[in-house]
Design goal:
Distance between the termini: 91 Å
Strand content: under 5%
Helix content: over 70%
Number of domains: 1
Radius of gyration: 32 Å
Structural class: mainly alpha
Number of strands: 0
Shape: rod-shaped
């Protein structure tokens, strides 16, 4: 028990590297959380795009044949005119 005084300077010596290590870990966690948030945003955007495409496909499947053909031709016509301009 008489040599407990040795622990006081030793704890001060180890405190510096421990604080530095904790600071690095905190930065790493911050970067990881930012990357996860960006990835979640991209997935959300992609999911919305896929839902829009699915909605269009559902309309095409459930619509009457004539209406669908007219809509497809209407979409195709501007694309053909645009290629003639170039």
């Amino acid at each position: 028990m008489e040599q407990i005084w040795v622990l006081i300077p030793l704890s001060g010596i180890w405190l510096g590297p421990l604080m530095y290590w904790m600071h690095i870990k905190e930065k790493k966690i911050g970067v990881t959380s930012e990357l996860a948030a960006e990835k979640a945003t991209r997935y959300t955007k992609r999911m919305a795009e896929l839902e829009d495409r699915l909605e269009v496909l559902e309309r095409i499947i459930t619509d009457g044949g004539y209406e669908t053909a007219v809509q497809i031709e209407a979409l195709r016509t501007p694309a053909l005119q645009g290629s003639k301009i170039q």
